[in-house]
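Before drawing any conclusions, I needed to go through one protein's amino acid sequence and its backbone structure tokens, quoted below without any editing.
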Amino acid sequence: MYYFKVIPFGLIDRPLLYKHTEKIKSGKIVDISIRNKKSIGVVLSEAISSEITFDKKKILTITEIHSYIFRSSHLEFIEYLSKHYFIDLGMSFKLSIGSELNLKKKIKNYLLFKDKIYENKKNLIHENNISNKVFLNYQNENKIIETNLGFQFNAKEDSILLNDEQEKIFQEISRDNLLKYSCHLIDGVTGSGKTELYFKFIFKALIDRQQILVLLPEIALTEDWSDRFFKYFGCKPYVWHSKQTVNQKSRILRSLLMGEPCVVVGARSSVLLPFHNLKLIICDEEHDSSYKQDDGPKYHARDMSILKASKEKSMCLLVSASASLETLYNVKKGKIKQYHLTSQFFKTSLPKIQLIDMNLSKPSSTSWISKEMFEKTSHVLRNNGQVLFFLNRRGYAPTKMCSHCHATVQCKNCSTNLVYHKSLNKLICHHCASIYDNNQACLQCSSAKFISLGIGLERLQEEVLRLFSGNKVQIFSSDTLRNKNNKKIFFNEVHNNKTKILIGSQIVGKSFHFPNLKLVNIIDGDSTLHSPDFRALEKTYQLFQQVAGRSGREGAQGDVLIQTYNIKHPLFQSLINQDRNQFIDKELERRESSHLPPYFKIGVLNILHKSQSDLRDITLEIIEKSQKLKIQIYGPTPALIPYKKSHFHQIFFLKERSYGELERKIRLLKSVINHKNQRFLSIDIDPINIS
């Protein structure tokens, strides 16, 4: 009899002992029983029989051994993820496959017909315009056969043409063999052809029959990226994100664990997948804050892509037009090699950025568009160009206020104002997604009269339609891109120049290419400048740089207008001077003097509880324990939203020079906190903000 340490997939942080009559390799996926329920787990190692101190007869038996096996590099990667981010080990392994169902489901194979792979019978019949009867005849004649290989790269002629600047970078990076670890930053201005450059690396890896992972910051980008990929490679990549079906995910996992040469493109969770032959990882828009998981298990996909590359002895390419300060700091430390693309692919000059001083150009009280912005927009539209109005606020109005006592309408579950969505005629909480009827009575004075304060995308749309009537206007936001059919129609109308005016939120700055866009209007340049978030200036600069980069990507030079009341702010001066280094140097200097990342590592202790008094008791315990251990801890302070999803929220935070010391102190403090209180505690390493 052999004994094994097995970690079940789920909320458990330590392996359990199981036995089996045969030896089992580390990394094997096995069926087990836990608390009289069937479960699945992974064998971490064999246990030495002589070290087992309790009755061996009580040790449960492994019921089935699956053909799937995780590589030792994947085991090490997941164990680090668990340790570094304080995620239960069992949950970390569960995250790496998405769900137990993805491994246990009976998988439907792909279909191969005339040297082409089809996802299912319906697609094959539709694309070949054949009847069900003909399909069955072809099957009986073995003209249609099943296959477990779904990625079809036929090594067609390389059609990726690079300019001299791109080719030079390709040759320089290529000197680092794909069979060893290296990390590179491709730092290029918007529209400089960064995607074509890393497509060249993908082509090279596929020729060598290797697996490739491409990370994108948003699910909404995967479809557009896949279409672009198809034009160059003649096949579709595997797409991994939360909206894929169990069957689709099961097929992808099978391919990865078999080592099938393929390209996987996905959102942040795809970095956790168990590859068997991974030699190239690309993290596109590496600066994007969407790579940080903010709810549930908190991890940073960009940082994990670098770690994964080191464990798999792979190449990691970080790609951005506005690289994060953490990445640029690591460039200075010599951990990452940096390469610059300085000119746009279509030889267009970078857009000209102008500031509009709203102290001198105030529109009327019912308007948000200045005279200068109106005139410039009218000029572009007359010349058949497209215009983007950028505003990072969804809905119609961010605040509804009682006209009698001036109290705002707030969510019952969160201490935040409800946002009015005129298209739905509903009030919505953007934090817990609760929906309220618009006909509210004031809780303070019972009045039923309210006024809308502030501006959202829908309200801006009303003004744009009024000022520029006769032009087709479309809102471009996460709300409008949810429907797949609407999304397809939207992109067709934009690319065919039927839509003249786009009204977009922050998603518009994420890698989208609009060939005829000639003017970007940023309505409110000041909204995030004075946020308590220590990353606010960096995120604002990156966002404005990305959004500005949508203008003038083909043809004549584009324009960008920014409305602001803070025209002399250093951030705006860096933008109009196209001098990113000026901003970066000042921001890094501020971070270092304030002992903030990237110079210091930060860990946040979040305490959430339905009872305010119980929350206070837990915070007092943490203060007492930290003082006894002589651990310097900051807080407690109310979170930016102190009451969210029916829970009160307080935070502590620690900061240290190294991750090792930070993890040690948090682990030590956590070990002495009352066990029943630990379920109200969550830990966030490298938080997006500590406000």
